[in-house]
Design a protein that fits this description.
By secondary structure, this protein is α/β, with parallel strands linked by helices. The protein has a domain at 17-129 and 173-206 and 243-257: Rossmann fold, CATH 3.40.50. The protein contains 9 helices and 7 strands. The chain has helices spanning 17-25, 44-47, 62-69, 105-115, 140-147, 149-160, 178-187, 206-221, 230-240; strands at residues 30-36, 51-58, 74-77, 90-96, 116-127, 194-202, 250-257. A 7-stranded mixed β-sheet has the order 3-2-1-4-5-7-6. The longest helix is centred in the last third of the chain and has 16 residues, at 206-221.
């Protein structure tokens, strides 16, 4: 079980970047909010400041950290394609950099539409299909596996100390354009009953470079590398505030369920 007292491995991040954007988009007077894919609750704790009732759901062991640290928030363990919540349970759902990881995007969107109340707000952010999407470090293994399997096996063994399971190929870290979002929403239960209130496409190259540096440092010295990279992270946070439009590395939408 993860250690909730290991703050170096599970830090309480400040309210910046995606968290700040989502926080600012939460309407005043919100009663119930769900943080969908909440990890160890480092953002959920801020969202709870603006809501009467706050819940989080997370499929990984990180949810145990969240439960220990923030007992005033209702955390659940599970995936996003099927949740334990009743229809129309939430006024706001936040899904921050999670949709690109789910097994079935449309199933996850269907579930969010089911548990969001009419008139409710759905805040979602993902990587964007922009100019520097090729700098996504989470796709290096995927690309290497497709183009040079022997090199992939060698690199995997060097990093992990064992050969990869041939039955478990690396999964692509997906990027989406605004058009991709509209197409997915139209195919889901949101179709015909939503409006896009805000779109924010941000970051160009500084943030992906900061992510690459963190991934490399973590591979060499572990999760505690984050503390050493704070200056570079600060530049990435500044990059996140700048709207780059179609060139951007990130995209966030505020969607209203109209009926």
């Amino acid at each position: 079980m993860p250690n909730p007292n290991d703050y170096a491995a599970y830090p309480e991040y400040p309210l910046t970047g995606r968290m700040r954007l989502a926080y600012d988009w939460i309407p005043a007077g919100t009663h119930s909010l769900l943080d969908a894919g909440c990890s160890w609750g480092y953002a959920t704790r801020f969202f709870a400041e603006k809501c009467s009732e706050t819940s989080g759901i997370e499929i990984s062991d990180d949810v145990e950290i969240a439960r220990k640290r923030y007992p005033h928030i209702d955390f659940h363990r599970g995936g996003l394609e099927s949740t334990p919540f009743a229809d129309a349970s939430f006024d706001v759902i936040v899904m921050s950099d999670v949709l690109e990881h789910v097994d079935d995007e449309i199933a996850a969107l269907n579930e969010m539409a089911r548990i969001l109340r009419p008139g409710g707000t759905f805040i979602v952010s993902t990587p964007h299909r922009g100019l520097f999407q090729w700098l996504d470090p989470y796709n290096y293994g995927y690309a290497l596996h497709r183009t040079a399997p022997p090199l992939y096996r060698m690199a995997y063994k060097l990093k992990n100390g064992a050969a990869p399971d041939p039955a478990l190929a690396p999964v692509k870290h997906r990027h989406y354009s605004l058009g991709d979002f509209r197409a997915m929403l139209d195919r889901s239960r949101f179709g015909g009953q939503y409006s896009i209130a805000n779109v924010f496409r941000s970051s160009l190259v500084l943030e992906p470079l900061a992510i690459n540096a963190e991934v490399c440092a973590q591979a060499l010295i572990g999760k505690r590398a984050s503390a050493l990279l704070k200056p570079l992270d600060a530049l990435g946070q500044l990059d996140y505030r700048i709207p780059y439009g179609a060139l951007a590395f990130n995209i966030a939408l505020r969607i209203v369920k109209t009926s």
